[in-house]
């Protein structure tokens, strides 16, 4: 079948200008690929993660109990409000990684290994259950242990005894956080093994699901059932140490993934937005180049609507060709990206076919966005009159020299006579088509600003880590199994080579007993919103009335001695502790975020070691990469706990900032305390405590960098397209220069310098835009991961790196058009239309 003449013309134009067609198609494809990859990843990941999570029948509520037996478990299972209940025993140990190096390692024991009704654990390899004196390791923990199946693992029990166990297999527990994130490992052993180690057969945690189907997605209802179970347990004489009700129906990672996908999605749409600019530039150039053809078509009867349809058809072909590239690449990218994230979220990806909504979105944006972008230049080009078309020289209406800026540029050669004529030609050509220049600038400027912003997020992360270090002026935390005179503890530490200071701190875990206030209760609003670490009011920290009753999540209590040199609080409200303070607390901003009804000066009730006590909040300090924490005076805290003059933990300062030195000193400290007859229950260095957080942030920064490079690619394609169009429009001009003796090198220099000038101007604009964008991105990343903005640090290094990148990209993008221009002969120029 023979094509209609108009469509034959479209295909001929695409075929004759292969380089231009390829540039536009690739530019659109990159943007559509980014949108498809992000949308597909979100669809696949959200569906498969939640499907995998629901397949383990996750607990609706979890209670910690100080030891109970199967009779109590059976009693809870008989409660009418409870559909199912199960129990676990957990044992905190440390696994040896080599001389002086340990990894916290939690061992779980299950009542029934074959029938796990809640929080199902699946065996992946090896015997299940493991034999005596053996463990099955949760699969994400195996690399952390630097072990393989068949190896022997040396474990240190809470009382300091060492036991060797065989690693006989791996299991998958999606309910546990990946070991790399928490910097600790997990494993499973039978009660036979634990009883040989001296631990009785009992349970320490209770998991339940509720019976009412309508209440399974109601967090308040689940909390009410958990409270009934708690009452049941406490009536048996046991102590409930905590109650936790997760958000029903959602994997714990959902809260973090949502803002991450939002951020990546915005970047994907930006890359598509930048692709649209190249479409505008290209179509505008085509309309200018074919203005005489438009005049001829109008002469023989072509109407405005027909011309618009003709050129929109060309754009439609661009979009269709781009989809042929973007859809397969987007699918591959979505599954690859999902698999990449799945390794960090500890679940398996199963191929389930094509994510239809994501592909549909690609088709929609791949066809609609380019056509919308091209509509204005097509409309303007199709409205040209026959007289204007026939008299056109092919350079459009963008002649240089008519504006005040143009005249200033022309006159500058008189003031700066050292400017060479080729350089002046490059300057004039750069600003000849200001509209096209502006569109090209947008692509390069946004790409550069986002590149610098991502590096600023990275710099802000390290600044935040530095701030966390600044708040805590110590290198090592060490804890032992019993209370000892503070002087003896400190003396033992100071005898260790490398230690220059040691302080005995009290430490405990607490839970706030929240008052049962009505929802419409009000509180004194005299205290203003507390400032964030960036010095601005932070709604994440400001207090609000109306917190529900019950217990809070776990709160860490630190009790440094008066005048401690190892805590450097950055106060945001109130004051620090005074030596004479007794029941005074300084809480961090993480505490204030969790307990939104608490205000400066309030009296709160804390439950510590099953005893309730009242405390007055006298200050709020900055919490950086921290959990909810409260600080009290050691003297009062030790008296309250019945430990006057005694402690079970130390903060240690070494003579070096080198993390390797901290590890060596920590090993020496542990050896010293063991020789003195103490069992070390906690040992960590500053670097180890921050490692998991840095790892999580590193993943996000790498993802953002991939998106930024895609945007830089779009910017480079846009610049190459602009330079190619400029060369086409100036074909006759270049021919005249060749006719009067211009050398090939001079022609290439003019075109290349023009491209580099565009790159440098975009770099200046990107530098200006980068600062506010960097702050915005840094704040949003911090809120997504730590519920507080990061400590902002602008990356000057990023500006320098982008200058190098944009210069290289501009030179490469200009090379092909410059080479083509330098090869034009006078004969080709005379024949050019």
General description of the model:
This protein is an alpha+beta fold and 833 residues long. The chain folds into four domains: 1-55 and 257-398, no CATH class; 61-244, no CATH class; 449-470 and 689-833, no CATH class; 476-517 and 535-656, no CATH class. Helix content is 52%, strand content 19%. It has 24 helices and 21 strands. A six-stranded mixed beta barrel has the order 2-3-8-5-7-6. A hairpin with a 5-residue loop joins strand 6 and strand 7. Helix 1 packs across helix 10 (304-345) and helix 2 (18-55) packs antiparallel against helix 8 (254-289). It is elongated. The two termini are 31 Å apart. Residues 517-547 have low confidence and may be disordered.
Observed structural traits:
833 residues, alpha+beta, 4 domains, 6-stranded mixed beta barrel, 24 helices
Summed up, the helix count is: 24
Number of strands: 21
Rg over CA atoms:
34 Å
User: How is the main sheet built?
Assistant: 6 strands, mixed, barrel
Which strands sit side by side, in order, in the main sheet?
2-3-8-5-7-6
User: How many structurally independent domains?
Assistant: 4
Q: In angstroms, what separates the terminal alpha carbons?
A: 31 Å
Principal-axes geometry comes out as: elongated
In terms of structural class, how would the helical and strand content be classed?
alpha+beta
> In terms of per-residue confidence, which ranges show pLDDT below 50 for 5 or more consecutive residues?
517-547
Helical residue percent band: 40-55%
- Average pLDDT reading: 81
β-strand amount = 15-25%
């Amino acid at each position: 079948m023979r094509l209609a003449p108009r469509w034959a013309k479209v295909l001929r134009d695409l075929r004759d200008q292969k380089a231009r067609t390829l540039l536009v198609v690739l530019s659109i494809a990159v943007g559509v690929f980014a949108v498809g990859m992000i949308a597909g990843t979100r669809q696949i990941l959200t569906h498969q993660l939640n499907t995998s999570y629901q397949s383990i029948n996750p607990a609706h509520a979890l209670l910690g109990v100080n030891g109970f037996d199967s009779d109590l478990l059976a009693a809870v299972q008989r409660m009418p409000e409870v559909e199912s209940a199960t129990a676990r025993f957990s044992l905190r140990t440390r696994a040896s990684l080599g001389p002086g190096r340990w990894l916290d390692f939690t061992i779980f024991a299950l009542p029934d290994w074959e029938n796990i009704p809640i929080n199902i654990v699946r065996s992946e390899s090896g015997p299940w259950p493991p034999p005596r004196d053996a463990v099955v390791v949760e699969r994400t923990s195996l690399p952390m242990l630097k072990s393989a199946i068949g190896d022997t693992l040396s474990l240190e029990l809470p009382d300091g005894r060492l036991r060797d166990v065989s690693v006989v297999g791996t299991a998958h527990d999606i309910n546990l956080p990946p070991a790399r994130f928490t910097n600790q490992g997990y494993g499973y052993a039978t009660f036979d093994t634990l009883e040989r180690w001296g631990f009785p057969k009992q349970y320490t945690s209770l998991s339940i699901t509720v019976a009412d189907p309508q209440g399974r997605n109601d967090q308040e209802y689940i909390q009410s059932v958990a409270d009934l179970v708690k009452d049941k347990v406490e009536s048996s004489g046991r102590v409930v140490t905590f109650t936790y009700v997760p958000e029903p129906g959602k994997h714990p990672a959902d809260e973090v993934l949502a803002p991450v996908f939002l951020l990546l999605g915005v970047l994907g749409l930006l890359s598509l937005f930048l692709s649209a600019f190249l479409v505008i530039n290209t179509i505008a150039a085509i309309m200018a180049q074919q203005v005489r053809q438009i005049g001829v078509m109008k002469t023989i009867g072509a109407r405005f609507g027909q011309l618009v349809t003709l050129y929109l058809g060309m754009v439609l072909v661009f979009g269709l060709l781009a989809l042929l590239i973007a859809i397969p690449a987007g699918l591959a990218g979505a599954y690859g990206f999902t698999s990449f994230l799945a390794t960090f979220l500890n679940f398996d990806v199963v191929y389930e076919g094509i994510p239809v909504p994501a592909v549909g979105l690609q088709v929609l944006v791949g066809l609609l966005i380019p056509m919308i972008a091209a509509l204005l230049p097509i409309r303007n080009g199709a409205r040209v009159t026959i007289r204007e078309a026939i008299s056109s020289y092919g350079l459009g209406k963008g002649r240089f020299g008519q504006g005040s800026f143009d005249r200033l540029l022309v006159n500058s050669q008189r003031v700066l006579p050292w400017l060479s004529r080729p350089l002046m030609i490059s300057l004039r050509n750069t600003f000849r088509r200001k509209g096209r220049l502006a569109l090209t600038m947008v692509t390069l400027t946004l790409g550069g600003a986002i590149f610098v912003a991502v590096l600023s997020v990275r710099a802000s992360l390290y600044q935040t880590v530095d701030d966390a270090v600044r708040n805590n002026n110590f290198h090592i935390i060490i804890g032992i199994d019993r209370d000892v005179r503070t002087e003896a503890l400190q003396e033992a530490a100071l005898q260790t080579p490398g230690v220059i200071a040691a302080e005995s701190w009290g430490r405990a875990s607490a839970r706030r007993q929240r008052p049962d206030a009505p929802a419409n209760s009000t509180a004194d609003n005299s205290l203003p919103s507390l400032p964030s670490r960036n010095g601005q009011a932070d709604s994440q920290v400001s207090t609000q009335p109306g917190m529900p009753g019950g217990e809070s999540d776990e709160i860490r209590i630190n009790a440094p001695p008066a005048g401690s040199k190892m805590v450097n609080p950055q106060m945001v409200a109130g004051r620090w502790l005074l030596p004479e303070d007794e029941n005074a607390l300084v809480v961090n901003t993480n505490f204030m975020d969790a307990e939104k009804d608490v205000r400066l000066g309030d009296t709160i009730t804390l439950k510590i070691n099953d005893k309730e006590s009242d405390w007055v909040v006298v200050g709020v300090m900055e919490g950086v990469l921290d959990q909810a924490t409260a600080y009290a005076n050691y003297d009062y805290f030790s008296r309250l706990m019945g430990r006057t003059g005694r402690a079970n933990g130390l903060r240690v300062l070494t003579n070096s900032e080198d993390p390797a030195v901290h590890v060596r000193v920590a090993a020496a400290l542990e050896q010293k305390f063991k020789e003195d007859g103490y069992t070390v229950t906690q040992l960590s260095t500053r670097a180890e405590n921050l490692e998991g957080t840095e790892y999580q942030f590193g993943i996000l920064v790498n993802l953002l960098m991939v998106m930024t490079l895609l945007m830089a690619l779009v910017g480079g394609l846009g610049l190459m397209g602009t330079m190619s169009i400029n060369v086409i429009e100036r074909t006759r001009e270049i021919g005249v220069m060749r006719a009067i003796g211009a050398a090939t090198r001079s022609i290439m220099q003019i075109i290349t310098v023009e491209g580099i000038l565009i790159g440098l101007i975009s770099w200046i604009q990107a530098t200006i835009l980068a600062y506010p964008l960097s702050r915005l991105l840094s704040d949003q990343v911090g809120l997504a991961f730590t519920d507080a903005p990061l400590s902002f640090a602008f990356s000057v290094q990023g500006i320098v790196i982008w200058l190098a990148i944009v210069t290289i990209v501009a030179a490469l993008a200009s090379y092909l058009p410059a080479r083509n221009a330098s090869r034009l002969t006078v004969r080709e120029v005379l024949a050019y239309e």
